[in-house]
Amino acid sequence: MLPILYSFRRCPYAIRARLALHVSGITHELREVSLRSKPACLLTASPKGSVPVLVLPDGQVIDESWDIMLWALQQHDPENWLGSQNRYLDQATRLISINDHSFKIALDRYKYADRHPEHPQAFYRNQGETFLQQLEDRLQASACLLGPDLSIADAAIFPFIRQFAGVDPEWFDRSPYPKLRDWTKALCHSGRFADIMRKHEVWQAGDVPLVINGNQGNTEPAFRQAALFGSTMHKP
Fold first, then answer.
1. Mind listing the pLDDT tens digit for each residue in 11-21?
2. CA dihedral over 148, 193, 90, 81, signed as positive or negative
3. How far is residue 189's CA from residue 3's CA, in Å, rounded to a whole number?
4. CATH 3.40.30.10 in the chain, residues?
5. CA distance 177 to 75
6. What Cα–Cα distance (Å) separates residue 168 from each residue in 27, 185, 218?
7. Does domain 4-81+192-219 have CATH number 3.40.30.10?
8. CA-CA distances (angstroms) from residue 105 to 19, 49, 116, 132, 191?
9. What's the pTM value of the predicted model, to 2 decimals?
């Protein structure tokens, strides 16, 4: 039996989980779900009904994206995303806490400003910019968030910055965050991102399993280094 990942292609939490499974090279079954019609087996595994959810062969259920990333990288971390002796974890955890709480609230209100008419859209964007500036400052000092190479922090935060940038691409293109903009664009155009963003049919009970071969997970180390400097680019 293989681990089973319940996912939704565009969900930033699911994207970060798929990135970690990809880099770790773990072969697994992917089940793309419709959030409007969640399969019963997903709800049985995790009654909260959100994605991603990873069901391990022994029946253990991991239903938080950060925990899925940690589990995958603790099995195999060929590109050292956790750092030697997990030295990136403390810094990464602090950044992810900001990303997943205050920044995510600002992002949702910025993206769906019509649902929060008490302030104009620019107000919510300004709230999110506090975190953008923190990331820009880090990227001014090094190519990636925790140093010269990509880490778990980059992979966990990138999907949310991509989403923020997509709300108003013209604004992001002229925003005062050039390093963050380059970092975002490079990762968006990496081969690894293209791989994990492939479109799949919504899974139905009885379907032939869609197996993601872990041996294909490490074909492009460009996500770590070269993509950040303009080589080996692919469009998702």
1. 999 999 999 99
2. negative
3. 28
4. 4-81+192-219
5. 35
6. 36, 14, 33
7. yes
8. 23, 20, 11, 14, 30
9. 0.91
Strands 4-7 and 28-32: parallel
pLDDT in tens, 78-93: 999 999 999 999 999 9
CATH top class, domain 87-191: mainly alpha
> Residue 113 has which token pair?
């400003």
CATH 1.20.1050.10 range(s) for the chain read 87-191
Yes or no: say if 186 and 228 are a contact pair by the CB < 8 Å rule.
yes
Handedness of CA 81, 31, 111, 194 (dihedral sign): positive
Q: Do the strands 61-62 and 211-212 form a parallel or antiparallel pair, or are they unpaired? A: unpaired
Distance CA 140, CA 35 (A): 38
C-alpha separations of 7 from 3, 29, 63, 76 in Å: 13, 10, 11, 21
Residue 216 to residue 98: CA distance in whole angstroms: 32
Which residues are within 8 A (CB) of 166 and not within 5 positions of it... i.e. 6 or more apart? Answer: none
211, β-bridge pairs? 29
The amino acid present at 14, given as its one-letter code, is A
Q: What is the pLDDT of residues 109-157, one digit of tens each?
A: 999 999 999 999 999 999 999 999 999 999 999 999 999 999 999 999 9
